[in-house]
Structures are given as C-alpha cells and as structure tokens.
Amino acid sequence: MSDLKISAYRVFVPDVTASLPFYRDLLGLPVRAAADDGGFAVLDAGIMLVLEPVGDEPDLTQRFTGVSFEVADMDAAYQELRGKGVEFTDAPHTAEWGGTLAHFKDPGGNTLTIVEYPKH
To answer: Model pTM?
Structure first.
C-alpha cells in the first residue's frame, strides 16, 4: 500500500453557501465543484478541500481542524489575509521546530493555520 496519499480533507461548516466565499474569495482557493443546494463544495488546495454541512451529525464545527496552508512569506500572507478581513486568533509565532504559524477562523468558527516552513 505504498501508493497511499491524502486526496481530500473534509471541513464541516454550519452553512456551505455562507462559507464558500471565505475559502474562494478571501483564501483564493479555486472551486472544483459545488452543489447548487449548498450540499457541498470542493476546492483545490493542493488536495481537495471539501466543505460539508454539519446536518444532523454532532457539531463538528468551531474546532481546530489541523488544516495548514503553506505560505512562502508569512508576513506578506498574514497582512494580506488580515487586510481581507480574516480573523486571526494569534499573531505569527515561531514554533520550537522552526516553522512560523498563525491561526485563523473560518465563518463557521473552525480554526485553520498558515505556516511558513523553515528554509534550509
């Protein structure tokens, strides 16, 4: 099974239609597919990022998702996203492993991350 790779990551949101502009317009992720009824949206983030409504399932929103978006220049990305109205929960900070991280919220309250990896 050495050919296994992650092809998609699902992020649960209260309302796909309300969340889609954040991912598409503010984060700049291209839409690959979206249901007209707001049942799902698939965005291209290097892998498929699938927005799904919570529906009748237990609330899976308003939590740390573990989704990190790699950026080449943390300062520039942080300033650009803040300028677009993205709500950061912390300023960029250097982790003990050498990378720089900043966490932000999507419209559903999910926490996402931008990361600049150390240059070696």
So the answer is: 0.88
Q: What is the CA radius of gyration of the chain?
A: 15
State whether residue 109 is helix, strand or coil: coil
Q: How far is Cα 3 from Cα 24, in angstroms, rounded to an integer?
A: 30
Closest to 101 (Cα-Cα) out of 80, 84, 87, 118: 118
The span from the CA of 54 to the CA of 60, in Å, is 7
The superfamily in CATH containing domain 8-55+62-116 is 2,3-Dihydroxybiphenyl 1,2-Dioxygenase, domain 1 (3.10.180.10)
**Residue 111: how many other CB atoms lie within 10 Å:** 16
Q: Which two tokens stand for residue 50?
A: 């699938």
Mean pLDDT of 81-108: 96
Torsion sign over Cα 65, 67, 73, 77: negative
> What φ, ψ does residue 115 adopt, rounded to 5°?
-140, 135
